[in-house]
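Complex record, two chains
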Amino acid sequence: MSVLDSKTPEGPIEKKWDNHKNNIRLVNPANKRNIDIIVVGTGLAGGSAASSLAEMGYNVKTFCYQDSPRRAHSIAAQGGINAAKDYQGDGDSNYRLFYDTAKGGDYRAREANIYRLAQVSGSIIDQCVAQGVPFAREYGGLLDNRSFGGVLVSRTFYAKGQTGQQLLLGAYGAMNRQINRGKIQSYTRHEMMDLVIVDGKARGIIARDLVTGKLERHSAHAVVIASGGYGNVYFLSTNAMGSNVMAAWRAHRRGAFFANPCFVQIHPTCIPVSGDYQSKLTLMSESLRNDGRIWVPKHKEDVEKIRNGSLKPNDLKEEDRDYYLERRYPAFGNLVPRDVASRAAKERCDAGYGVNKTGQAVFLDFASAIERYGKEKAYSEGHHNPSKEEVTRLGKEVIKAKYGNLFEMYEQITDDNPYETPMQIFPAVHYSMGGLWVDYNLQTTVPGCYAIGEANFSDHGANRLGASALMQGLADGYFVLPYTIGDYLADEIRTGPIPSDTKEFDEAEKAVREKLESLLNNNGQNSVDYYHKKLGKIMWDKVGMARNEQGLKQALQEIEELQADFKKNVRVVGKFEAKNSELEKAGRLVDYFELAKLMARDALERDESCGCHFREEHQSEDGEAKRNDEEFKYVSAWEFKGSDQDAKLHKEELEFHSIELATRSYK
Amino acid sequence: MKLFLKIWRQENAQAKGQMVDYTIDGIDPNMSFLEMLDVLNEQLVAENKEPIEFDHDCREGICGTCSLQINGQPHGPDRLTTTCQLHMRKFKDGDTIYIEPFRAKAFPVVKDLVIDRSSFERIQQAGGYVSVNTSGNTIDANTIPVDKESADTAFDSAACIGCGACVAACKNASAALFVGAKISQFANLPQGQVEATQRAINMVNQMDAEGFGSCTNTGACEIECPKGIKLTNIATMNREYIKATTKG
């Protein structure tokens, strides 16, 4: 048997979670007062977990690198959150949400976890509405829904293009209530630098106060990692500048297995790169694909004219446009899943049809939606024969009400008006499906160390569907972890406070201090960003949207060389005990180098195509991904074996009893 | 573009700060303002000097981390724009740009352009929430219909990103717009009614305790707010506060 025990409960899939909750051990309220829990990260997962645990009576300490928990990057999620409420009466159900998520992930996630996610999805909406989250409503006063990619129902709840912000402020409010009660101690501008293990159990962390630069020890009976994803390994991504893998990676180095590191989502609709100075990429919500149509010109001569500005995209005739998603995938059209849409854009651009100067962009066009909505609105206002101008004016009003803030953001960044001319978009790194391996209780392979939200691997397989990240973060934090953590803590009620003046804390703190001091004393000649950009380029070119054996082997070699150069020649200015953003960046990059190598190795090992992981060796004649269930129907979970040695691969075989494995088709 | 920058440098909260001159060349008009500062910082690192500390994170205008008083205006010259979404095409070659931290007694400087906005945190902790515990058994989300206008108004208030531009714009350094936005969000929703009284009193009292000034209705906050939070939020706050303090 594998060393990995998922602890998936017995019984039929729809009963597993209830059975588990009925049999799991509980901690009585009086004892909860004697138990301390550390939560690292205060986004949707961390914020919701911290507030729920504190409500239950545990003593919680939260840590975030931002100056407020409200600024965690969940705030930037735009489009929405899924829930199987079936308010639209379109045949939605827990099973359908489960089915769509499992299929969307190309059958590389754990069945029981996905089903549980679908089961608790409805409660999330109830909870958030009760907190005063202002979701979009219809005129009758009930909640409104829209559609996202990879599904055939409308199950996405939203608050304009700022759903993540509103949900996070809900969780932040719940945290504030507990801070006010003294049940949460909130440490802002603090970064977790290492996990401390005592007798094989997670017992605390070493944190750095980013204002004073001082190292601190914090002990607890359990540590919850909710620090998000690692997309910034590519330098350019839609992640916040500060998002980083340090907390998860340090836990990995202390014994937590890292699962499916090569599964990274490249989101199809982002604003294209415009220059070398670019520091980050901006997402244009997937919700835009409800109404926007994606196209490139059919003929190369038109591509040339559009690139040099002699032809306006609006002037290109319908028959000379290639709506390639509608052409290739008539059943789902522009709403195919993200991995499929991204690869299709890359295919057209690689073939020379990209529409901007760099050749790395396609159009997302709202003209036909403006016309359709304009006609509908004119009709409902009693104008049965409206003029073209009237239709356009009314149509723009409807589009503005739906996507106004996104259109403004696009115009601020590009100086183009998307109401008048199609948006230019291109795929960008967005989300990591991979993360710390966890069992059904969301516990990592280190007892007492849990991982929730984007930081774990558990629910999205090889591709995440739109509007499911918010759902998973809140499911883990509000409705899963608060129950499952009790099973472990039931053994801790007699432990008493954990001392932090022990040799384990001494050693961990010393190692962190030495790491940071060596960076500061390096006196090289290149900046941290110089290396980060180079690393990002290797990853994007060779461990990005398309991968092959030769490229991955080269990537491993190049990362190794770059890492060696970094160690020798990086320059980190400033002081240890002071606010020092260069030192912060350098510390994070140290871990990105190690992660990057593991990602390339994982991608090399997984000799099949599935979801986001497209190995060019394994594709059908029409360029679709070819999965290999015989050999690769498993979760790869990597065990750390010392920094200069190779990590060891463990496999968790995936079992599917409630869904039939099929070739994913969106045609 | 070539630019002349005058930037506030301050070692730490205790130290005395000063404006320092920098010249920067080769700036692309399509760069964001913060990317321009990135370029300057790379230049400083190359000269073995300490880069300028400034707050930023999402760089897409939603997290509220970035701040900066640019030529005397919070988030610079553009309306409805955070500093991270401000682009250099809004400036001219040869311009001189003054860059300072947001100035307010309740926002002490941490280092250079970084400020401490924990006063905002304490105001939210005093009552910026609905006291509902997590359970899988709250009432179904569609049990209480909310008319669309109220829901949309609540959303418009809830769109505040907590950046502090309203305070920096105000001659009194008042936080009325920030506090008003949260109070209004809940005032417009049935879920917020139950605790309306305590919320208004606790949040307003905390705002005063933090050393923010009083509101004299000059309206600069509304003009400078990157998210378009309206002055009516302050009126709602005042109404809620009066209602709360005169309640039997």
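Note: Residues 388-414 of chain A form the longest helix (27 residues).
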